[in-house]
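Re: the multi-chain job from yesterday

Posting the exact lines I submitted so nobody has to dig through the queue logs.
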Amino acid sequence: MKKVIKQDNSNIRKDSYDLLTKENDEAPNNPEGLKLLTEEIEITKATYDENLSIVSDILNDIKIEKKIDIEKIQIVAKSLVNNVLKHTDAMLILSRVRKFDDYTFKHSVNVAILTIALGKYLNYPDKEVEILGTGGLLHDCGKMKVPNEILNKEGRFSEAEFEIMKKHPIYGAEILEESAQFDQKSILMALQHHEKYSGGGYPTGCTGSKISTFGMMTAVADVYDAITSDRVYNKALNPFEGLKKLYTEKGHQFHPTIFEHFVYSIGLFPLGSLVQLKNGLIGIIVSVNRNNLMYPRVLVIANETGKMFFMPYIVNVNPPRSEESGKWTMESIFEDNKETKGFAPDEKQGYKVDKVIEPSEYNIDVDFQFNNMQKLIQQIS
Ligand SMILES: [Fe+2]
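And the result, structure tokens for all chains:
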């Protein structure tokens, strides 16, 4: 028997899934759910953009040897924490679909969002979640001390260049220590985010419990955001494929339990994933049911051929029923050769996720879809 991952959901805060959930909303055309989601995205988009511009100023200050403006970074961390606590799903969607030219700045904000969401899922006190946010925002600040020609190099690093690049966690920890105002846990996030659970990471190559919990949390968030973002030398994996790749490193590069918690915090089908339902309809995952990851909510946007609907609508995929929890395991979902493979444990239910699909296969721009929802809402209201 496979070991089923048990989770204690008793103290998870209410999130936007509850906000969007209506009783018995299996019937399509749920404009209210769509409106709520659109409003959440509108509110959080402004915050995301503003925070991104402040973070880019702060990181640029480090580059020109100016001191970190601790007040500014705390304001950003607090604002991100507030937004992630209130609008978890909308913030996670934004971290996936917003496109920016500068990878480092966007990556810093995204890692903060992901670590905050993980801290929230683990029900950490607000103070700790803030420390996670601050450390997430600054985890790569040491890169500002790496020469531009290496940092922005297209293609593979030479051995010598990689040796310099590998110093950025130490530079980062030094920068944060210098200011003497950062919590030790935030500093460890900068220092240890490239360490590996089973050893062989950098800068020290230490293993297991020698790596702080916050450091290991940052490591998962860092790699997840990196492999699911378009970079000069790497095309982004879709969020589900990204998680699948991370899964192969569970217990190796990543602490096994922290990896599992991470999956619960962002969803088995992470927000922003494009999926095809059993009935052929195509949609985007817009809300995670953290009580049972098999049952997300989907914004249906196109028919089985990829023809876009004028008015998208939200459906509950297999409305949550607690007695079905535990009928699946991460192994059965992530490992292709498992007999239990499949996204739909109960064939009697209506909407089921059949597979995760590549947006480019159907010529669908997920970012464009979200940006246009506001316009659609205005047209119908
Ligand atoms: Fe890094």
